[in-house]
Amino acid sequence: MGTDTGADTDAGAGADTGTGADIPAEPAERARVAAFRSRIGVTSLIDVHTHFMPERLLAAVWAYFDTAGPLIGRPWPIGYREDEERRLALLRGFGVRAFTSMLYPHKPGMARSLNDWSADFAARTPDCLHTATFHAEPGAADDVRRALDQGARVFKSHVQVGDYDPRDPLLDPVWGQLADAGVPVVTHCGSGPVPATHTGPGPIGAVLARHPRLRLVVAHLGMPEYADFLDLAERYPGVLLDTTMVFTGFVEATAPFPQAELPRLADLGDRVLLGTDFPNIPYAYAHALEALEERTGLGPAWLRAVCHDNAARLFGLRR
Prior knowledge:
Layout: H1 26-40, E1 45-47, H2 55-66, H3 84-93, E2 96-100, H4 111-124, E3 128-129, E4 131-133, H5 140-150, E5 154-158, H6 159-162, H7 172-181, E6 185-188, H8 201-210, E7 216-218, H9 226-235, E8 240-242, H10 249-252, H11 262-267, E9 272-273, H12 285-296, H13 299-315
Parallel strand pairs: 1-2, 2-3, 4-5, 5-6, 6-7, 7-8, 8-9
Helix pairs in contact: 1-12, 4-5, 5-7
């Protein structure tokens, strides 16, 4: 991706330039999010793509973003660089009733300790959907079984950062376990913001061919291979997509969602989930919601399903 800041001049969606310097003061932003919820007819949101992880690891992730590393490719200032309690308070203030702690290993040997941290975080944070992860390594199947036994309700697979092939035979029992358990796995398998060795629809498509019942949540709508991942969702009923960062000015500047694909996205409205990447976003949380509303034009019923009802059904959350 280039160095364009993704500035946007549309009303509402253009309230943030994507530089990270335009995050509104909390009361003003809470009012914007509340107004969005009112317009689409929900009292709360469910965000399936938020990041909570051990503080030292999160600091390292932020440092990587600060240097615009090779997996980023452009300036990416962190919008919500706050301590854990403050970040929780912000999400709750936006009316987010359930969220995830997306965490991921960048090398083998990390997954089990991350899963233990996440299990503790979920135990002390009742509105967090207990999240776990894995890497392609000999103990992957054992790590996933242990996390499931601990109560994990959703997994994160970061094919780009982990730099592993999802078709690796070491992961075959992992995908099988997750398919059998019906537990969703949010997977960064698209080639945005920059391609990696095993990103794109081909590798993960081969996994789905072998495990067609897998509940795979394609992060970022598969950016930038949007059409290809819509194909996979149409082919496999267990495939869902999350909206993380898509339609924002920051992403539209370099990887715009094709307008011609909006009817297909509308037809898949019961399998699209709200995701944001909070806190690691270079614009206001409210902007992600407003951009989703304005750039899709798919209306309140579609947005209600995406921002609350689909995830509530997926995770068995009562109203």
